[in-house]
Amino acid sequence: MGGKGKSDLSIPLTDLEDYGSRLRSVKDRMNRTKKTFESYKDDIGDSGVYDALDDFESNWEDGREDIGQQLDQLAELSDAVVREFKKLDDDLAKKAKDSVKAGKEKGKGKEKEKGKDGGK
User: Fold this and answer.
1) Within a 10 A sphere around the Cβ of 45, how many other Cβ atoms?
2) Distance from CA of residue 117 to its chain's centroid?
């Protein structure tokens, strides 16, 4: 076990809880590049710049799909880690509580036995 009252297992659960939603946000923003380019089409001026951005967007589509799938998998994995760790934590807390409760009940039984035979 770790020293000085620290546990050996430490998971930044609050950070991890937000991780899946942040990954999904990255995917959403990544998938909006074409709409972003289109929204500035009139402001860009030179059609050559817009055409280059459009070419980039077209070429980027295949890679973006692969990255999007990986982001989805990471987000799902992150959610599963949080869910399973909370479940484990709840199970361990329940077992510890039940163990303490059983220990107290066992102690009460010994006191009753002492009282019956005069404490001998």
Assistant:
1) 10
2) 57
pLDDT tens digits along 16-73: 889 999 999 999 988 888 888 888 888 887 788 888 888 888 888 778 889 999 999 9
Residue 7 is given by DSSP the state -
Q: Give the C-alpha separation, 98 to 94, whole Å.
A: 6
Cβ partners under 8 Å of residue 23, min gap 6: 71, 72, 74, 75, 78
CA pair distance 24, 39, nearest whole angstrom:
22
Global pTM exceeds 0.70? no
State the residue for tokens 């002492």.
114
